[in-house]
Amino acid sequence: MKVKLVFASLAVAGLAVSSAVAAPPEGKGKPKTGEGCKPRIAVILKGTLTGAGSPLTVKVTSANHWGKPYVGGSDKSIAVNSDTKVRGQGMKQLSELKSGFRVLIQARVCKADLANGATPALTATKVIAHDPSKANKDENDNKGQDNKDKDDDD
Fold first, then answer.
1. Nearest to residue 66, comparing CAs of 43, 39, 37?
2. Cα separation of 36 and 48, whole Å?
3. How many CB atoms lie within 10 A of CB 7?
4. CATH number of the domain at 40-140, please?
5. Partner of 106 for a Cys bridge, out of 53, 126, 135, 147, CB 3.0 to 4.6 A?
6. 3-state DSSP call for residue 43?
7. Does residue 38 carry a pLDDT above 70?
8. Following DSSP, what letter does each residue of 47-109 receive, concatenated?
9. Where are the domains of the chain?
10. pLDDT over threshold 70, residue 6
């Protein structure tokens, strides 16, 4: 009697485990690549704009772990769309970007697409840009203000 109970318990447990381990049917679950894939990884690139417009052309000088394959070599093209946010020094529009600006570009891509050092096409979600000529002007203005403050102290 106890033997039958043990076998019945094992059979029920086996059915429960096999249904839990089974792969989802075709078309169900989260896709590994393409639209709506999971997980999506943030690729962050830092460099200098060599061409403004759509797409942006960037000479990438550094990146986070996921963006390392994009560093160096020829200039990279980064697509932009109406959802791309532009920030930095009061900028809000893609049309305000110019060649020579220092940029930090954030994009999201499927983790599976980055396997083995692949470099899939990126679409920027955010562009943070700085005009180097304005940065130097601001620094000079601040230095002039500091010198004026020192003269006032004397």
1. 43
2. 30
3. 10
4. 2.40.50.320
5. 126
6. strand
7. yes
8. EEEEE-SSSEEEEEEEE-GGGGGGSSSSPEEEE--TT-EEESTT--SGGG--TT-EEEEEEEE
9. 40-140
10. no
